[in-house]
Amino acid sequence: MTLLVAKDISVHAGSDRLVDPVSLTLEMGKAVTVLGESGSGKSLLAQAILGTLPKGLDGSGTLTVGGDTFDPARPQGNRVLWGRRIAVLPQEPWLALDPLMRGQQQVAEVHDLVAAASEPAVRAKADLTALGLEAAGDKFPWQLSGGMAQRLAFAAARAGGAAITVADEPTKGLDADRRDDVLALLRKGLEGGGLLTITHDLTLAKGLGGEILVMQGGTVVERGPAARILTAPQHPYTRALIAADPANWPRRVPPSVQPVLVRATDVTVSRAGRTLFRPVGFSLSRGQTLGIFGPSGCGKSSLGNAILGLLPYEGTLWRDPGAPKLGFQKLWQDPPAAFPARITLGQGLDDLIALHRIDRKRVAPLLDRLKLSPSLLTRLPSGVSGGELQRIALLRALLLDPVFLFADEPTSRLDPVTQAETVRLMTEIAAERDMAIVFVSHDRALLHSVSDQMLELSAQ
Amino acid sequence: MNTALNTIAFRLMQAAGVALVVGVMSFLMMQAMPGDMAFRIAAARYGYDLVNADLANAVRAELGLDAGPVTQFLHWMGGLARLDLGQSLVSGQPVWDEITHQLGASLQLALAAIVLSLLIGPPLGICAGLHAGGRFDRALLVVAASFRAVPQFLLGLLLIILLAVQMRLLPAAGHGSLAHFVLPALTLALGLAAASARITRDAMAGVAASPLYAFARAKGLSDGEVLRRHGLRNIGAPVVTYLGLQFVLLVEGVVVVETIFGWPGIGHALIHAVFHRDVPMVQGTALVMGLGFVLLNAIIDLIVRRIDPRGVQS
Fold first, then answer.
1. d(Cα A79, Cα A88) in Å, to the nearest integer?
2. Which of A403, A447, B100, B244 is the 20 to 30 A CA-CA neighbour of A298?
């Protein structure tokens, strides 16, 4: 059964076309997934269908939902679809739920006011029970875990009886376990309904199956059944996107045996009187990469900072006393936060060069090695892309001749293709310089392909 | 429950602190005023035309004003410890009787002003906040800023000239009938509403732009339902907190407005007590207002905790 037909949907900003005409059809029980990087126009496409385009952007084309026709150019008319025929999953459930209303009420009000169903409280309770949320009914959203909030938002979004579910980047910033939860929820949405998912997450797309549309620069460059697109991509961009998935990266070649740089025995870190993780031990040699994995908040970053000597720790931590004082460096998770916003990148490097009396001639070859244009240095941090900024952060660390680099989720804010390129450069340079890396990530596949050894932290 | 008890205990301590500070400050300020205290009191009792040095000396002897400020202050504090605010130096009546007599009239006026300001301010603020940046929002900013900037005595006089003198719709001053309420209450309410409209507008604009508002609409709720069920709930805490703080504006306004409109309330009495150097009256009145502020904020605290339980149970 056909639930929704979107024909020639495009998005304009004045006379600029941001999304070229796209047509798609949602069938009962079949997933449609739009894959692409940020800026590819995939979210705009979803917003044009929903009628939630930001001010200044106009949609066009035709939209048919269950026999009724809607005009994307007049988004006000789409409002009747919300909740009743199309359930919209929020990107960040914690922020989307009302913090001052108890869980069950947030679902019950939809049964009551949108679906006009009898006994809304009983129905809401049944919804929550079906999702394993019995305990959440009397709680406020801020008392729930991220996963519970996600399920509560799912129940609230679908309580109006909509057969179609639209999810825009539902796994953004989630670790692997939470991503599996979301996948299970979306599959639930597919039972007796249609699903449109916007994502850059290949694992999610693979799990959902159905049809995949690959978007780049506002155009669908390739589309087809998920199995075909993910295994035999035709378009070069799709190939790059799939090659960028950490699960498809080439296996790492173990480095030659080198002297030990850091040795930890029964090390743990406490914050505010609470021990963050069970004591761990490892031995890291020059040229090696140690991957640290664990759920959010388990102390991955704290362990890295303890190795750098930035945090107090318990246990024994030995650092090679022969290593230079500035030899232990760090790459931050959020590149814009690691640069002063109002100083040009070149000025920042100049200050570093003056402070440590570094030979200025070393900058040009490093720029070249990191595939950075020298003209970028005249700009402010806000004027370059996230990938470029992270490579400049790497350059900044390399000027100090580090023997050790703590990379704290250095690519979690980058698009997949950029992530793959950044990580490849980082590991190549580490091999050239016999630099040891501690790589923190919530992406197990990524760690598997970059690390010589893995450390999985578990809460105390 | 424990936290509620803690709050009450904290507020009681605060009340004791306020009583001490208000007592000391009002006493010091009265002492610092120029002129002969006995002469002023005598003038208040017998009239400026009749007063002379003999009468002033008689008053001085009667009230023991020669005893010095420290003795007088200790005497007042001792009385306060026995919950006795002392006697008015002018009328000889117990201060507590005078205050309760006038407080009723002031509370009526304050209540009328608050109700009126709540009918004007928050609704306008919500309307502007829902369409932040729109024409109405910008117009409200100008109007609210103007009403906040105009001092209340000027606003009161303008209203008298306009509505009482020119249009002859309402009495300019006095107390007794419902018509007498309108001008003083409106003068107070316009200032209060101007401030509460701005606070409500900012809170509403923030909530309306938040993901929770977008999600509530995406769930299928109509704009009215989203506002009633999620909007009001989420602007509740900041707006109610601010209404508590407005009590300061209200007290300030009551003093000025009662004087202009000849309203026989506590503000009016305070002004007269200051002129007549009636120290126990000034101290008693300031104390009642100060403790009223503490009590009101304790109540507001409990209401806000009820609206927004975050940070109480975690």
1. 12
2. A403
Tell me the CATH number of domain A260-456, given options 3.40.50.10420, 3.90.1170.20, 3.40.50.300, 3.40.50.720. Answer: 3.40.50.300
B218·A90 Cβ contact <8 A: yes
From first to last of its 460 residues, what are the pLDDT tens digits of chain A? 888 898 999 998 888 889 999 999 999 989 999 998 877 888 899 999 998 888 888 899 999 988 888 888 888 888 888 888 999 988 888 889 999 999 899 999 988 888 888 888 898 888 888 888 888 888 888 888 777 888 899 889 988 888 899 998 888 767 777 788 888 888 888 887 899 999 988 888 999 989 999 999 889 999 999 999 999 999 999 998 888 888 888 888 888 888 999 999 999 998 877 888 899 999 999 999 999 998 777 888 889 999 998 999 999 999 999 888 899 999 988 888 889 989 999 999 999 999 999 999 999 999 999 989 999 999 999 888 888 899 999 999 999 999 999 999 888 778 888 889 899 999 999 999 999 999 998 888 889 999 999 999 887 6
pLDDT in tens, A310-337: 999 999 999 999 888 899 999 988 888 8
DSSP SS3 for A220: strand
> Which residues does chain A have within 8 Å of residue B217's beta carbon, measured at their own beta carbons?
79, 82
B232 inside 8 A of chain A by CB? no
Distances (CA, A) of A25 to A35, A69, A443: 16, 14, 32
pLDDT at A80: 87
Distance from CA of A444 to the nearest CA of B (A): 30
Chain A residue numbers touching B232 (CB-CB < 8 A): none
Write the DSSP symbol of residue B229.
Answer: I
For the stretch A121-124, contacts whose Cβ atoms lie closer than 8 Å and that sit 24 or more positions apart, written own/partner, are A123/A159, A124/A155, A124/A159
The fold of the A2-247 domain, in CATH, is: Rossmann fold (3.40.50)
Quote the distance between the C-alpha of residue A173 and its chain's center: 4
Domain locations in chain A? 2-247, 260-456
* B230: nearest CA partner in chain A: A98
Q: Please tell me the distance from the alpha carbon of residue A2 to that of residue A27, in angstroms, as a whole number.
A: 5
Classify the complex by whether its ipTM is higher than 0.85, answering yes or no: no
Q: pLDDT by residue (tens digit) across B29-44?
A: 877 777 777 777 777 7
Quick check: B220 and A156 CB within 8 A?
no
Helix (H, G, I), strand (E, B), or coil: what is residue B53? helix
Indicate yes or no: CB of A143 within 8 angstroms of CB of B221: no
Domain B95-275 listed as CATH 1.10.3720.10 = yes
Domain positions in chain B: 95-275
Q: Does B303 touch chain A (CB under 8 A)?
A: no
Q: Check if the beta carbon of residue A9 is closer than 8 Å to that of residue A21.
A: yes
Q: Which among A79, A96, A159 has the least Cβ separation from residue B215?
A: A96
The CA distance from A150 to A147, in Å, is: 5
Of A82, A142, A143, the CB nearest to B218: A82
Min Cα separation B211/chain A (Å):
5
- B220: nearest CB among A83, A96, A140: A83
Return the closest-CA partner of residue A235 out of A224, A225, A222, A245: A222
How many residues in total does chain B contain? 314
**Cα–Cα distance, A405 to A426 (Å, whole number):** 10
A→B interface, C-beta within 8 Å? 52, 79, 82-84, 88, 90-92, 95-101, 109-110, 113-114, 140, 142-143, 153, 156-157, 159-160, 162
